[in-house]
Design goal:
This protein has 295 residues and is of the alpha/beta class. It folds into two domains: 2-80; 107-294, Vaccinia Virus protein VP39 (Rossmann fold). The chain is built from 13 helices and eleven strands. The strands form three sheets. A seven-stranded mixed beta sheet has the order 5-4-3-6-9-11-10, with helices on both faces. Strands 1-2 form a two-stranded antiparallel sheet. The structure holds glutamine (GLN). The site of glutamine has 8 residues, from loops.
Length: 295
């Protein structure tokens, strides 16, 4: 009698249906219901290969004790605001899968759009296109461009050796050939090559904008990839555009992702540095998000 009682308890607590109910409630402390549900489905799929359809077909599915612990650990991380992409160690960008961890920013949809814009520009160029990505992080821009632009040669630099390790693995897992270099753009490095396209999504969030940001970004994403001082928010753009003067081919173009409040200032900075044909472009949310600079 007692034995069967405990068995039933065990079964009940390990059923996906029951766990799902309990964990969604926990996740709802920081996510809305729909998001909580989606997050749980991502975890079930990632850890155990359980799809939404499989669950619908077999609602009484059970997890082993080890599986329960795995799921519990992931839920704890999510309720502590750790982004799902770091919890499962990967994300999708431009239809490719990228490894991510706390050494690199989680790629944003705005950056996907930047890749689309840059790759269509690259396709108008004849011959092998030389591309440089400055501050590559996870390598999402460099790797996607290497895959999208036929016959291009992609170089990518970053100040962080740990980020470059992630980026190198991302190039390998996506079959992309990228030349990664550990360099700090603020030290004005000299590279032995000129490029048709220089692209960068440098740190551009002002310190004063911290107060509008969520814990999942502030507590987990690498601050060196995000923040700049309010006193000199365009520091990276200034160094990059200066670098472009000596590292861009005569008809080359520079493509920046920018702070939505600093588009006009960034384009003006480019003009002052000899890039007379500079313009701001909007992102898919209608915000000033990119600057194209050409001579
Ligand atoms: N778009 C990112 C954010 O809002 C910032 C990226 C960056 O600083 N380059 O968190």
């Amino acid at each position: 009698m007692i034995f069967s009682y405990f068995c039933r308890m065990e079964t009940l607590s390990n059923s996906v249906k029951e766990l799902r109910h309990r964990y969604i409630e926990m996740l709802c402390e920081i996510y809305d219901k729909e998001e909580a549900n989606a997050l749980l489905m991502i975890l079930l799929e990632h850890h155990f290969g359980i799809s939404r359809v499989a669950l619908a077909l077999n609602p009484d599915m059970l997890l082993s004790d080890t599986e329960c612990l795995t799921l519990q650990s992931s839920i704890r991380q999510l309720t502590a605001s750790r982004p799902i992409q770091y919890v499962i160690g990967k994300t999708e960008f431009c239809g490719l899968e990228f490894e991510v961890d706390e050494n690199v920013l989680i790629p944003r949809p705005e950056t996907e759009e930047l890749v689309t814009i840059v790759s269509s520009q690259a396709k108008t160029l004849a011959g092998a296109v030389d591309v440089l990505d400055i501050g590559t992080g996870s390598g999402c821009i460099a790797v996607s461009l290497a895959r999208l632009i036929e016959g291009c040669r992609v170089t990518a630099i970053d100040i962080s050796g740990n980020a470059l390790d992630v980026a190198r693995r991302n190039a390998a897992r996506n079959g992309a050939s990228v030349n990664f270099i550990n360099a700090d753009i603020l030290s004005d490095p000299a590279l032995p090559r000129r490029f048709d396209i220089i692209v960068s999504n440098p740190p551009y969030v002002c310190e004063s904008e911290r107060r509008d940001m969520r814990a999942n970004v502030l507590d987990f994403e690498p601050p060196t990839a995000l923040f700049v001082s309010d006193d000199d928010p365009l520091v990276f753009y200034r160094h990059i555009i200066d670098f472009a003067r000596t590292h861009l081919k005569p008809h080359g173009t520079v493509w920046f992702e920018v702070n939505e409040h600093l588009g006009a200032e960034t384009a003006e900075l480019c003009r002052r540095h000899g890039f007379g044909d500079s313009a701001v472009m909007k992102d898919l949310f209608g915000k000033d998000r990119y600057v194209k600079a050409a001579r």
